[in-house]
Amino acid sequence: MTQLLDGKALSIEIKNEIANTVRRLTDAGHRPPHLAAVLVGNDGASMTYVANKEKSSHEVGFVSSVYRLAENTTEQELLATINFLNNDPEIDGFIVQLPLPKHINEQNVINTIAPQKDIDGFTPLNIGNMVLGRPCFTPATPLGISTLLHRNGIATEGKHCVIVGRSNIVGTPLANLMSRNRETANCTVTLCHSRTANLASLTRQADILVVAIGQPEFIGPEMVKEGAVLVDVGIHRLPDASRKSGYRIVGDVRHSEVDPLCSWVTPVPGGVGPLTIVSLLQNTLQAYRQHHNL
Ligand code: GUN
User: Fold this and answer.
1) Is residue 36 within 6 Å of ligand 1 at its C-beta?
2) Which domains does the chain have, with CATH numbers?
3) What CA–CA distance (Å, rounded) separates 160 from 186?
4) Residue ID of nearest Cα to ligand 1 atom 1
5) What is the rounded CA–CA span in Å between residue 241 and residue 234?
6) 39 DSSP β-pair partners
7) Tens-place pLDDT, residues 8-24
8) Which of 82, 208, 237, 293 sits at 20 to 30 Å (Cα–Cα) from 105?
């Protein structure tokens, strides 16, 4: 029987826990945590993500603000906004929503974010600390995946975790997280990518298979071992004339064929996505505590 890794339900549970913590802090006379987001341009998916982050922030009692900049904003103007946020003591942490318009250098932007406010965990200092196993902000999607596995009681120790996709946001930091010497990790990790030879022979060895390649319905049943735990990070809109909306949402996995093989699967939507947002809230609370010595 396939069981669901229900990210939506778990995110509600954890948001309630965060809301209780915030209530205790504000009852004791402290100001609430403040998360800010910077959104450049009008990318539809990015606008949805930022709106979801804002909604979730309010649900847990955080203050939330969004800095909306035009598509033709210069890199210098964006860096000035980041410096403003770096120096505003009322803001505990912020994210710059990616991707950015092509005329802006993403690395320059990330390098400008103050590491102590980098709740996405994207700055070089944060990534370096993470790789060394030192205190850091763990990137939100990898942290969300780890939380989803752990809170559903899925054993990771000694398991073979195969990750498909080596992005800076998901695959690369997740490979590090899952191989750590920690009770919630201790996996043997294989990181696969677009140049991997015999991909299916590797994915078929996975006890835990994480797919984050950004290609709709890429993984089929011939690539998955019976009883595997399957985590699908992908989310895509495919045109579908049979739907009233005109589209359907799919992941990187062909779920109707693959799910019956698996012991656990994340649905799309409602799997990894809600936990990514929860992780960002957890990181904001961590930043707040560090700033206030709480
Ligand atoms: N775009 C897609 N995922 C993310 C994320 O986790 N953080 C930011 N800032 N942008 C993203």
Assistant:
1) no
2) 28-137 (3.40.50.10860), 140-274 (3.40.50.720)
3) 9
4) 98
5) 22
6) 68
7) 999 999 999 999 999 99
8) 237
